Amino acid sequence: MAAATPTPAIVLIGHGMVGQRYLEALAERGATATHRVTVLCEEPRPAYDRVHLTSYFSGSTPEDLSMVPDGFMAEHGIELHLDDPAESIDRDARTVTSRSGKVFPYDVLVLATGSYPFVPPVPGKDAPGCFVYRTIEDLLAIEEYAKTRTSGAVVGGGLLGLEAAGALQGLGLATRIVEFAPRLMPVQVDDGGGAALLRTIESMGLTVHTGVGTQEVVTGDDGSVCGMKLSDGSTVAADLVVFSAGVRPRDQLARAAGLTVGERGGIGVDARCRTSDPRVYAIGECALASDGRVYGLVAPGYEMAETAAEDLLGRDKEFTGADLSTKLKLLGVDVASFGDAHGATQGSLDVVYSDSRSGVYKKLVVSPDGVLLGGVLVGDADSYGLLRPLTGSVPPVTPEQLVLPAGLGAPVALGPSALPDTAVICSCHNVTKKAITACADLAEVKKCTKAGTGCGSCVKVIGQLLPSSADKGLCGCFPYTRAELYEIVRTRRLTSYEQLLDGHGRPEARGGEGCEVCKPAVGSIIASLAPTLGASGYVLDGEQAALQDTNDHFLANLQRNGSYSVVPRIPGGEITPDKLIVIGEVARDFGLYAKITGGQRIDLFGASVDQLPRIWARLVDAGFESGHAYGKALRTVKSCVGQTWCRYGVQDSVRMAIDLELRYRGLRAPHKLKSAVSGCARECAEAQSKDFGVIATAGGWNLYVGGNGGATPRHADLLAQDLSDAELVRLIDRFLMFYIRTAEQLERTSTWLDRMEGGLAHLRDVIVHDSLGLCAELESLMADHVSHYRDEWAETLEDPERLRRFVSFVNAPGAPDPTVKFVPERDQVKPDLSALTLLPVGGTR
Amino acid sequence: MTVELRVKEGWLTVCELSSLTPGRGVAALLPDGSQAAVFVDRAGRPYAIANQDPFTGAHVLSRGLVGTLSGRPFVASPLLKQRFDLESGRCLDHEEVAVRTYPVRTAATS
Ligand code: SRM
Ligand SMILES: Cc1cc2nc3c(=O)[nH]c(=O)nc-3n(C[C@H](O)[C@H](O)[C@H](O)COP(=O)(O)OP(=O)(O)OC[C@H]3O[C@@H](n4cnc5c(N)ncnc54)[C@H](O)[C@@H]3O)c2cc1C
Ligand code: SF4
Ligand code: FES
What we know:
The complex is a heterodimer of chains A (845) and B (110).
Chain A: E1 9-13, H1 17-28, H2 31-34, E2 36-40, H3 62-65, H4 72-75, E3 79-81, E4 86-90, E5 95-98, E6 103-105, E7 108-111, E8 115-117, E9 130-132, H5 136-146, E10 151-155, H6 159-170, E11 174-179, H7 191-203, E12 207-210, E13 214-219, E14 225-230, E15 235-237, E16 240-243, E17 247-249, H8 252-256, E18 267-268, E19 280-282, E20 287-288, H9 298-312, E21 326-330, E22 333-339, E23 349-355, E24 360-366, E25 372-378, H10 384-390, H11 399-403, E26 424-426, E27 431-432, H12 433-437, H13 442-449, H14 459-465, H15 482-492, H16 497-504, H17 518-533, H18 550-554, E28 557-558, E29 564-566, H19 577-590, E30 593-596, E31 602-607, H20 612-621, E32 634-639, H21 653-664, E33 673-678, E34 692-697, E35 700-705, E36 717-723, H22 725-742, H23 749-755, H24 759-767, H25 775-788, H26 792-798, H27 800-803, E37 822-825, E38 828-831
Parallel strand pairs in A: 1-2, 1-7, 2-3, 7-19, 9-16, 10-11, 10-16, 11-12, 18-20, 32-33, 33-34
Antiparallel strand pairs in A: 4-5, 5-6, 8-17, 13-14, 14-15, 21-22, 22-25, 23-24, 24-25, 26-27, 28-29, 29-31, 30-31, 34-35, 35-36, 37-38
Chain B: E1 2-7, E2 10-16, E3 25-29, E4 35-40, E5 46-50, E6 65-69, E7 72-76, E8 83-85, E9 104-107
Antiparallel strand pairs in B: 1-2, 1-9, 3-4, 4-5, 6-7, 7-8
The structure holds siroheme, flavin-adenine dinucleotide (FAD), iron/sulfur cluster and FE2/S2 (inorganic) cluster (FES).
């Protein structure tokens, strides 16, 4: 390309994902130094990650989604005009005119205008309440509108339609999907896969209509949407309609400028991405590639961006077509299709595994001589990362072994190690196994090869290819971390451990009993989400009873001889003489050992299972509640005496400690939670050794987080200063819920914070500055907890069913366990360990 | 349905099957004064082993959590967490240790 001016000018129209990739390709090749680059962007914000648009609803902020590295434009001298779309192109004068009337001369013009959502021409389609799903602005508008509505409908059951439906459901709307084709995701999956998908999606509470069209959007008296008339004659209710019936290339500008466009749309380009005018390129979703297709995926768009950049510099590169493989997680369901997914190749054969109970459907398409041609995976797409690179070759094991779940049929030792060096592992960035294994860790892979930074579906296989790869799964039953399980439970609204195990466990663990590691972990997750999921918050109801460690099971702490200890809550360590007397009387009457704990309360030891309800009946009567000494839950909020009495105190530390303890009592967490409030900087309550510690200042409260005593002590970090009461509580609400959501099982806040990428600064961003846009949700989860709190012991005593378990022997209720005995010591009792002589042990024979 | 356990004296009725929570155990007092831990799995299958935890001497195995390892059911002691195979009584964490097991069956309530 001959440059007409000393510094040739490039004008890029459209700053979407592909436009940004083109700019990066120019920068990487040094072309931004030799060219003047101007970008016209229609949207009010620079390029962002449209592929992960939906993550906005799970907490990503528009800033998180941005694809433009800080300072990128300035560093490369690129001029970006936001909110100023190109309106016309004058190819003779070689200028582009924008909406604001500016005129930009070009030597090279690049069109990256993407697509627009197709809205079928049905009556009512423009009524208030009708939306499309393409930009951040669309999502903001949907979110706002949904606030005051209760039902929604999505027109189109393709990939985007399902994403949109998930989003509507997440916004609390009763949601239905209307798909014209006879199955969901008609492009990606076949009938069998569609059926598996349908079952899973219906089980999540969405209503699906397939094989029907939308005839009319019905509006109410105020002119806004209130329903839809379908082609089968029925009318369904919907206050909000999202059209997701496919996209069309945005080729109007090119068309008006006289460039060749395809019969069914798309700006025609050759293999080097040039349009019919050699000075004009078209890349991304707006282009009709030389193989006659318009690609609606980002990976082919990126490849076109690279091609156009190479061509600009006179280098040889061609784009002649791309793989349409996709792996998606829609509404928590894995769906993948790759290669010849529909078996269009002459003579191809199918190998199918289908299990409708668990919603798993897998189909591989193979040629008669065993070459893997493609496939569809629904419900379990773990093998996608391996199967896609194997496409085009004869796999090292039989296709049956590739589709059967592990545990059924012969074990398959097919790991990524079986892949050839040339196998493409990351299809978004076209990175081979060889390039990946040359790196030391995932961070290096992402930095050096970009693999894993696109759709992310290859990250798992990359992890397996790297030397240090370790299975991060919680236990032998689940391949997920606790934080991932939390998200699964939350988004799929599961309230049953068995459902979780059978649907999301490792294949070999499904249908089994689980284990002692994940049961309490899942029990805790369900308990902490119970109010939000609308499940019973009582930790011992139904199946929940089988998940809890014995301590939670009997709402008491198991001691070495099989007896239990009892710890009533004494908020802030403050106690009336009358209550103190009740504790003394209970200890005396039941013969319990009494001790002041390190947590400013009183522990009564040596109760037998049968005594627990009677002991608690007395305590509850006197106004005591469970102290949750047995649970991974809030323990104590210690306090110093504070301003009321102490000559140095500057705030009422006792009142604050009591308020905090009552607010967070009963909150189930990955590990126990402790807190303390000191009335001044002398810190008599040791707040800086607590998970969240509060120290009074003249101006309010300082909040410290991540402190720990125990085996590995850690001083807490100062998170925020001089907070008002309300600010303090709000920050603690967010902090605790963020911890509960993202920590691993048995990870105290100290280790969690040490492990957190970005450390305290990141935590502060999230909790104080709301950088993830999560805070409103975290606060509402906490509000749910606070409003649903009930004392577990009071609830237990009210219910004879629940009391039934408090017996030593199922066949002799009332009989105490003769092996639980005590001997005197220092005027109290201690366990008589001689009563525990081991009986002979041995097998059955 | 009742759960029955075979002891020296013959089959001993322990409780109604419906009173057991799958994945959770109960303790039963046997005629000779010893104790058994009785469990039922998700499929409704009963198991019975000695209730005494051989590592601490405390009679607590019935209060442990049930799990599956390589397709076989086990209980983890609630005290120090050693796991015991529910069918063979073998300790999965110390192969030289085992607890006794009892033949167990479900029978129609007469
Ligand atoms: C009763 C008490 C000791 C006492 O007589 O004072 C106690 C007793 C136990 N502690 Fe503690 N801790 C007690 C205060 C503490 C403190 C001091 C405090 O809370 O201010 C600490 C250090 C502070 C901290 O946690 O950061 C403490 C650090 C631990 C740890 C180590 C935690 C760590 O992160 O390293 C454990 C082990 C664990 O939880 O995994 C533990 C575990 C235990 C357990 C639950 C061990 C067990 O699993 O059986 C003990 C049984 C209590 C029971 O049966 O009732 N206890 N323990 C104290 C109860 C306080 C309360 O009222 O709730
Ligand atoms: C919710 C959602 C989920 C998706 N998921 C996936 C996925 O999982 N995998 C996948 O591969 N793809 C996915 N896609 C598709 C992917 O986002 C697109 O393929 C990709 O964004 C195309 O990039 P592009 O730059 O060509 O177009 P776009 O990203 O649409 O960018 C085009 C830009 O040009 C602007 N523009 C248009 N006309 C003008 C003008 N005249 N002047 C100035 N600017 C103009 C537009 O406003 C827009 O900002 C998804 C899309 C959506 C909406
Ligand atoms: S921390 Fe300050 S206010 Fe509290 S008791 Fe100690 S010296 Fe007094
Ligand atoms: S395949 Fe999409 S990021 Fe690697």
